[in-house]
Amino acid sequence: AGGGEQFGGLAADDGEVLLSDWTMGNIPGAKEFVFTDAVLYQSPEQLRNPIGYLDEEGYRWDVFAFGVLAYRILTGMFPRCHETFNFVAPEAGETRRDGIQADLGKIARNLENQPVVTWPDESQNELEAGFRAWIDRCLPLDPGKRPFTMMEVAAGFAELERKGALDAERETLMDQRRAAERRAWRFLFCTGGAAAAAVVLGGLWHLAGTQL
Fold first, then answer.
1. Which of 20, 69, 115, 117 could form an S-S bond across to 1 if both were Cys, CB 3.0 to 4.6 Å?
2. Of 134, 150, 137, 135, nearest to 60 (Cα)?
């Protein structure tokens, strides 16, 4: 999404590709640089010092880029500087827009002028709220406040899904228990009603016999 490499991605344990990206981007050693949407996903420290990628600073850069990408996929907006970024972003399916000269320092300053990220709407459920919380953790301007690598983020997502599955299973069991309790109450009600009717009829029969 903009971490800097020419090709990168995320794969499942079985090797299935889940997410990939490829672009020249803002990488150290590049002889030619054109404006691509990669710079719209990069953190301020990467925009100012892309050579830091060689010192393994890129792990938290990738986390930031993933946060921007995830936010944009979910909302259709950039988490910061949306109006400006949306105006210069390449068209859907393209990686670059001709005729634009990127001022990386200015992009970094614009990001830093919007330290707080907010969501345009409320989460629809607890699971979505959990995913949003992890995305928020990817987006601080201070790299020390982000997860160290995407492995930590992926583990957090997996834990949310595991907890969601357990909660769903627990809710299913509770529904089954409630249904069983309702059936038990109906049985007791019907049994009690039948017993009461038998008592009443027995009493009437006894009364009728006494009168005779």
1. 69
2. 150
